Amino acid sequence: MAKLATESKESKAVKPPKPAPQLPAALISELERRRSGMARHMARAVVSLVRWDGSTGVPPQREAIARACEAGLDLFLAAARDARPATNEELRRVAQLGILQARSSQSVEPILAAYRIAARVAWDAILGAWRGHPDATPEAIMLTANYVFTALDQVAAEVTKTYLHAREQHMQRGTRAQARLFHALISDNFDSELELQKQALALNIPIAPTGYVVAVCKLIVGTGSRDGERGGNALAEVATSLDVPRGAIHHATDPSTLVVLWPAESVANVDTVGQFVAKLQEEAVKRSGTARARVRAGIGGYHPGLRGISRSYLEAQQALEAGRKLRPEGIAHRHDELIPHLVLAQNPRLAERFVANSLGRLTEPKLRNREQLLETLEAYLVLGSVKDAAAALKLHRHTVLYRLGKLREILGGDLEIPATRLRLQFALELRKLL
Questions:
Q1: pLDDT for residue 178
Q2: Residue 1 pLDDT class (50, 70, 90 cuts)
Q3: Which of its termini does the chain have fewer beta carbons within 10 Å around, N or C?
């Protein structure tokens, strides 16, 4: 009984795996002898049969294709000779074409098609080499077919994996290089315009030597004035879908900010930047749906040459910030239109004197109903009539008339005089920048 129990336990024990079937050594030797000729036939078929066009890029050099075919044959022969899976090093040598294709920013599909064609040629050559060989039994041929198609599957998987990895690295390097070029332009951090043009040419980015007008754009989300945290990236996607002239460049300098460099030859091109911002606004509103997003942009002036970009960029930033305070609901704020405000705002003491002298007692915090009076004065000066001001403030006409009477008493002047109206409106706007 003990002996039977022992035999029963031994029968239930895990048996070692069977060794993988191997091809006859004579057949392997014959294939190794014909290796070079088979690799040439495979490479010739790849060059002549794979379709290459503008979308797939220029085909790899014949030498690279021949090396890849030889590596594929070596992978098959090693696996068949030793009855083992391919090593990482063998797969890496076979996958080199995937890396080359990724670095050329082209599709991987023609490379996979090339390997399929090469495998077909290799299979035909193997059958030809074994024709009439005494060891070429049906079982051996089936086993060979299994090794061939297993090798093809491994190669396809490795090429795809290597291609995707190399493509990601290539795109990251390209993105970083583009970012460096862009920041060099907006910060005037380059040695010479010629050197910058060479960098742009290497990245396939055309640069307009006549100069640029810069727009700094933010995406405003919701009914308030809060910047979208990922607004710059979202606007970059929108900008990519719009028609722009040759030489136009845009880049999200941070997640919330999109900077656009618009090629220009004169001050007249500032208007076209405003039109682009309007299109950006229209598309952004359409895509945002219920999020109710909109665009706010500052537009710098035109300054000739690539050295003028940094100045236009600074002006665009100033215009964006001033526009946010002066006209929160506005879309495009142009630096050239805000120059008087910005000049005075850079001298706070002088600006405060102007505001105090123009608005008088309206600057005193203890004045009764001061904010209501300031709101009414601004609406009246901007809209030009009592009726429109009352509609904008959602007040009765007589309430507006009463407040205007109070304002005349405080300001001590006629609000209908054009010069007075202009001075008061400018003071109200300047007050927002202080």
A1: 83
A2: very low
A3: N
CATH pick for 348-433 out of 1.10.10.10, 1.10.10.2840, 3.40.50.300, 3.40.50.720: 1.10.10.2840
One-letter amino acid at 166 equals A
Residue spans of beta strands (DSSP E) within 49-138? none
- Tens of pLDDT, residues 305-362: 999 999 999 999 999 999 888 888 889 999 998 888 888 877 888 888 888 888 888 8
What would the DSSP string read from start to end of 380-411? Answer: HHHH-SHHHHHHHHT--HHHHHHHHHHHHHHH
Range 370-378, long-range pairs (CB < 8 A, 24+ positions): 372/403, 373/403, 373/406, 373/407, 373/410, 374/428, 376/400, 376/403, 376/404, 376/407, 377/404, 377/407, 377/424, 377/428, 378/425, 378/428
Is the model's pLDDT at 430 over the cut of 60?
Answer: yes
Helix or strand run (H / E) with residue 263: strand 257-263
Q: What are phi and psi of 85, to 5 degrees?
A: -75, 160
* pLDDT at residue 298, rounded to an integer: 94
- Predicted confidence at residue 426, as pLDDT, reads 84
